Every structure is written in C-alpha cells, then in structure tokens.
TrEMBL record:
Molecular-function annotations in GO: peptidyl-prolyl cis-trans isomerase activity; protein folding chaperone; ribosome binding
Family (UniProt): Belongs to the FKBP-type PPIase family. Tig subfamily.
Domain PPIase FKBP-type: residue ranges: 161-243
Naturally occurring in which organism (per UniProt): Amphritea japonica ATCC BAA-1530
Location relative to the cell: Cytoplasm
Gene (name only): tig
Name of the protein this chain belongs to: Trigger factor
Length: 441
C-alpha cells in the first residue's frame, strides 16, 4: 500500500492511498464464491448457482461493499503509518476503482493542531473571595418566602411588589398590534415582565382606575416590527393585591425538603446551601478567567469538524433547556452563528486543557472524585443511594472524573500564575460573569 500526504490549508490534509489490485479483487472473488453457495435463484438448486451468474447479477454491489471496507481499513492503517491524528471523518474521493487495476482514493480531513504550551507564569489573575454574612442569609430567606407568597386584594394605591390584575390594549400610531392586548392579566410591579416604563407607570394606581401608558419598545426587542417603536397602552386596573409572606414554620420548611422544626435549624441548612453555591460560583468564575487566559496565551488553529460537533451539542442543549426533553424540534433549525464563537472557544479550551494534562502527566485524583460525588450527594435525602448510583454508572462517574481533572489543571495553572486576591460581596460572587464581547454578539 502506497501513501502520500499533502498539507493543503491550515490543519487540512489530503492523503492519497493506493491499494494493490489483489487486495480488492481477491476479497471480491471470495465474497462472490460465498454468495454462490448461499444465494437462491430460480432455475438453480441451492448451492449450485454458477459463479459467473452470481458475479453478473451481484458483482457490482459486492465490489462496492468490499471497496467500502478496504477504504475503512486502509485509511486507519495509513494514518497510523503517517502518524496523523484525524479530527473528524474523511471526505473520500475514488481515483481508480476498476477491476484488475490498483485501487486508489484521496481522503481529505483535518488533523489536531500541534500545541507548544506558552509559559503561564507571565499571566496575572484575580481570585475573588466572599462569605455568607447574616444579612445575606436574611435576604435569601426573604427571597424564599417571596417565592411562596400569596396575594391578598387590598384597597390601596399600588406600589412596587404589589400584584395588579389588568386589562390593556396597545396601539402604535393608532393601530393595534399583535400581542398588544390582554384581559385579566396578573402583573407584579417591579418584576420587569413588561417593557421598560410600563410597570412604573402603574405605580400609584388603584382598583377601577384607567390609565394611559406611553412607552417605547427597546431597540433589541425580539419582534422586528416593534423595535424602537413608540406605543400607547390603555390600561384598566381591575384590582390591587398585596404580597403576604408565609410564616417560618414546619409547613414552610417542608416545601424546601427541610425537615427541621426550628427557625435556627432552617437557617443552618439555608446557610449550608448558600455556602455550597458560593464555592461553586467562585470556582466557576476563576476557572473561566484562567482558561480564558490559557486561550489568549496559546494561539492555535481549531479543526472545523470539532467546532461543528460542539455547535451540534450546544444546539441540543438549547432545545432541551428551553423545550424540555420531549421537545419535537429539529436542532438544526437553530442558526449555527448563534453558537459558533462560543463553540470555538470551548474547543480551544478542551484542546489546551488536554495538552496541559498530557504535558504534566496528570492523573485523576480519585480521592477528589470521591469527595466531589459525596458533596453532590449531600444535597439529597438519601446521600448513600446517590453515591452508589454514581459509582454504578460509568458514564456519570466519567463526567465527575473529567470535572476533577479540570480542577487539577486549574490548580496547576494557578500555582504558576501571578494571583492576587480580592474580596467581593456574596451577591456579586454568585452573579453570572459578564459575557465576553464575542459571546455577547
């Protein structure tokens, strides 16, 4: 077998493979003979069909089947021989597949980039720290109460936090528009459910009042025909209701799966959850910043096949997140451009993290894997069952192992970088990081 490789553009390679005629023709002849022994044709006894008849009727199909297998086997042998690492399947084009002649084809594919990691000791990073203070705890408990709050009708002027039941009709230049009308809709002032200015204009309103609300649709509004347009809404307030927070009692605690009977015990559990969330948020942000610097420091080409694969995965995640696991939506309906920049960044991070693991011969710390599993299991009522489930499910356990290995890479990078610490509030710590310019676009 003869193999020649040409570097075309970037990571793309074009490999020409020439296979001796004997390798293909002998396999075809053997398969024709095997078929003759088993095929059933009218006019012939089983096992007595002449080879010539079988070859005439089935020969072309058999040859294509054999050629497909030869391409698969020879491609693997060729990339092994040339020490290439394809990133995705090849695009194969036959050059000669005539019987009795050398079989040849070209395979075009991308390879993984060669990576020489830059010195990470030049990187400067900021590591945030925070703690759950008593005020944060009280605010969280109030938030939990608001989630379970009821509304009671009241004879008063509406303020932020009150719920209004309203009818409204919207118009632009005197013409009604789709989605601009509602009857008997409940609206909590300050929830930012409506476009800017709508809710604040209703503050001070009482039941039975009618108000004219003038607002402007944002330039980034999802409906193209409404972007930046001035609109008028005629609003009727049917009733005003005030928010009534539930008491901190056993019934309230049970709604959050907490069996504790005292307020103090409930606070202990809430604080634990907040501290767990805080640790996860701080680690995620630090990892994002560190891996972002790793990408900045190491300019690498990325195989388009890997980006396409990541885009497809992100499409499926988006469908599952917004449509649920049973959503009957074709992921390909989502434009590739929505995910491409983030997909490329993810692939770069994956390639560079893998190179750090390889260069430093890192192995998964199984003790950290165990503690990570136990930490996740602690949030459930039967922790041991969750632990057993992870260790009985290799796919899920592998996900934890990969996360731990990522954390080990993070530790290694931080140990060589210039890291300064800064203290932030709990609220700022758990707030999602602002997207980078390319991701935001």
């Amino acid at each position: 077998m003869q193999v020649s490789v040409e570097a075309t553009t970037g990571l793309e390679r074009q490999m020409t493979v020439v296979v001796p005629a004997e390798r293909v023709d002998s396999d075809v002849a053997k398969r024709v003979q095997d078929t003759a022994r088993t095929v059933r044709l009218d006019g012939f006894r089983p096992g007595k069909v002449p080879v010539k008849v079988v070859k005439k009727r089935y020969g072309q199909g058999i040859r294509q089947e054999v050629i497909g297998e030869v391409v698969q086997q020879s491609f693997y042998e060729a990339v092994q021989q040339e020490k290439l690492t394809p990133a995705g399947g090849p695009n194969v084009e036959f050059k000669n597949d005539k019987e009795g002649e050398e079989f040849s084809y070209t395979a075009t594919f991308e390879v993984y980039p060669e990576i020489a990691l830059a010195d990470f000791s030049t990187v400067e990073l900021e590591k945030a720290s925070a703690e759950v203070k008593d005020a944060d705890l009280e605010q969280m408990i109030e938030t939990l109460q608001k989630q379970q709050a009821a509304f009671e009708e009241a004879d008063k002027a509406a303020v932020e936090g009150d719920q209004l039941n309203v009818d409204f009709e919207g118009s632009i230049d005197g013409e009604a528009f789709d989605g601009g009308t509602a009857t008997g809709m409940d609206l909590v002032l300050g929830s930012n459910t409506m476009i800017p200015g709508f809710e604040t204009a209703l503050e001070g309103a009482k039941a039975g009042e009618e108000k004219e609300v003038n607002v402007t649709f944002p330039e980034e509004y999802h409906a193209e025909n409404l972007k930046g347009k001035d609109a008028k809404f005629n609003v009727k307030v049917n009733k005003v209701s005030v928010q009534v927070l539930p008491e901190l009692n056993e019934e309230f605690f049970a709604k959050f799966g907490i069996e504790e009977k005292s307020v103090e015990s409930f606070k202990v559990e809430v604080r634990k959850n907040m501290e767990r969330e805080l640790t996860q948020a701080l680690t995620a942000k630090l990892k994002e910043a560190t891996f972002g610097k790793l990408v900045e420091l190491n300019a690498i080409d990325v195989p388009s096949a890997l980006i396409d694969g990541e885009v497809d995965a992100m499409r499926r995640q988006a469908i599952q997140q917004f449509g649920g696991p049973d959503a009957n939506i074709d992921p390909n309906m989502l434009p590739k451009e929505m995910f491409e920049a983030q997909a490329e960044k993810r692939v770069k991070v994956g390639l560079l993290v893998a190179e750090v693991v390889k260069a430093n011969e890192l192995k998964v710390d199984e003790d950290r894997v165990r503690s990570t599993v136990e930490e996740q299991a602690a949030t459930y009522q039967e922790p041991q069952q969750v632990i057993d489930w992870y260790y009985g499910n290799q796919e899920m356990l592998s996900q934890i192992q990969n996360l731990v290995l990522e954390d080990q890479v993070l530790d290694l990078l931080l140990s060589s970088a210039k890291v300064s610490e800064t203290e932030v509030s709990y609220e700022d710590a758990i707030k999602p990081a602002a997207p980078a310019a390319d991701e935001e676009a």
